[in-house]
């Protein structure tokens, strides 16, 4: 089992760490370096080794894989700091919009693979896009299989596809959380119990998830719930009148455009 250091431990990194622990990755092989106090406290609860800059300088040679989880604007500084610790690091970049060629340009000894996961990795239901710039085959397979334990993995031949991954799946959970605010508001009026309300929403989503079948289209599933001149038909008709799907797709398109903008800057 390889030693992994999360350099910058924001929400995505924390989600990956939680998922790794759930699928049996040993705590002694997971390290994190972060300046964020609240993140340190979260890692402490998970009993993860949150190391200091001094520890990093003294023990960086023991790290097999560096996971770059800093904000995109901070990536250069972070990579240079890692290179000062290890001259030829294996680097997994989680930085949205930062192309692997820009990272690799900082050192000809740097090995880079880019992964765009989402926060559902924490529950082992993540979706991650992966693009290999110049990892060795062995290390690439290791990282790919690691993320497979956290959910589904989409391998990409072209890095540009990661923009779509970001717009569809990286941001995806937030779209559904946003829609669920309508449900939460109405359920709270019925039960007046926030904890029960969230449990009901979880049960609803689990039921929807379990209903998705390889042999049935989404239209088939809608038809199974609908009845002629019934409540479901009335709701779907109103959503169509409001161009709900078109507007929802426009939101995803806006995310894709922004992902491309970040990538080009």
UniProtKB/TrEMBL annotation:
<dbReference type="InterPro" id="IPR036291">
    <property type="entry name" value="NAD(P)-bd_dom_sf"/>
</dbReference>
<feature type="domain" description="Pyrroline-5-carboxylate reductase dimerisation">
    <location>
        <begin position="159"/>
        <end position="261"/>
    </location>
</feature>
<dbReference type="InterPro" id="IPR000304">
    <property type="entry name" value="Pyrroline-COOH_reductase"/>
</dbReference>
<protein>
    <recommendedName>
        <fullName>Pyrroline-5-carboxylate reductase</fullName>
        <ecNumber>1.5.1.2</ecNumber>
    </recommendedName>
</protein>
<dbReference type="Pfam" id="PF14748">
    <property type="entry name" value="P5CR_dimer"/>
</dbReference>
<keyword id="KW-0521">NADP</keyword>
<feature type="binding site">
    <location>
        <position position="34"/>
    </location>
    <ligand>
        <name>NADP(+)</name>
    </ligand>
</feature>
<keyword id="KW-0028">Amino-acid biosynthesis</keyword>
<comment type="function">
    <text>Catalyzes the reduction of 1-pyrroline-5-carboxylate (PCA) to L-proline.</text>
</comment>
<keyword id="KW-0560">Oxidoreductase</keyword>
<dbReference type="GO" id="GO:0004735">
    <property type="term" value="F:pyrroline-5-carboxylate reductase activity"/>
</dbReference>
<feature type="domain" description="Pyrroline-5-carboxylate reductase catalytic N-terminal">
    <location>
        <begin position="4"/>
        <end position="96"/>
    </location>
</feature>
<dbReference type="GO" id="GO:0055129">
    <property type="term" value="P:L-proline biosynthetic process"/>
</dbReference>
<comment type="similarity">
    <text>Belongs to the pyrroline-5-carboxylate reductase family.</text>
</comment>
<dbReference type="Pfam" id="PF03807">
    <property type="entry name" value="F420_oxidored"/>
</dbReference>
<dbReference type="InterPro" id="IPR029036">
    <property type="entry name" value="P5CR_dimer"/>
</dbReference>
<comment type="pathway">
    <text>Amino-acid biosynthesis; L-proline biosynthesis; L-proline from L-glutamate 5-semialdehyde: step 1/1.</text>
</comment>
<dbReference type="InterPro" id="IPR008927">
    <property type="entry name" value="6-PGluconate_DH-like_C_sf"/>
</dbReference>
<keyword id="KW-0641">Proline biosynthesis</keyword>
<dbReference type="GO" id="GO:0005737">
    <property type="term" value="C:cytoplasm"/>
</dbReference>
<dbReference type="InterPro" id="IPR028939">
    <property type="entry name" value="P5C_Rdtase_cat_N"/>
</dbReference>
<keyword id="KW-0963">Cytoplasm</keyword>
């Amino acid at each position: 089992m390889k030693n992994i250091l999360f350099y910058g431990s924001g929400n995505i990194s924390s989600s990956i760490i939680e998922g790794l622990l759930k699928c049996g990755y040993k705590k002694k092989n997971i390290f994190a370096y972060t300046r964020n106090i609240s993140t340190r406290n979260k890692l402490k609860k998970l009993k993860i080794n949150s190391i200091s800059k001094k520890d990093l300088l003294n023990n960086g040679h023991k790290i097999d894989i560096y996971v770059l989880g800093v904000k995109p604007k901070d990536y250069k500084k972070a990579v240079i700091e890692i290179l000062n610790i290890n001259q030829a690091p294996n680097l997994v970049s989680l930085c949205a919009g930062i192309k692997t060629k820009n990272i690799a340009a900082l050192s000809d000894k740097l090995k880079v693979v880019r992964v765009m996961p989402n926060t559902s990795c924490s529950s082992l239901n993540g979706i991650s896009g992966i693009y290999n710039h110049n990892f060795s085959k062995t290390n690439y397979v290791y990282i790919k299989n690691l993320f497979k334990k956290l959910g589904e993995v989409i391998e990409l031949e072209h890095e540009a596809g990661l923009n779509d991954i970001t717009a569809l799946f990286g941001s995806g959970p937030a779209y559904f959380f946003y829609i669920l605010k309508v449900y939460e508001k109405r359920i709270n009026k019925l039960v007046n119990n926030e904890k029960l309300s969230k449990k009901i929403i979880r049960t609803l989503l689990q039921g929807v998830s379990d209903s998705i079948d390889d042999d049935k289209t989404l239209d088939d599933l809608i038809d199974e719930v609908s009845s002629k001149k019934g409540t479901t038909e009335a709701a779907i008709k109103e959503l169509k009148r409001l161009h709900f799907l078109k507007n929802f797709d426009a939101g995803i398109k806006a995310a894709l455009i922004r992902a491309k903008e970040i990538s080009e800057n």
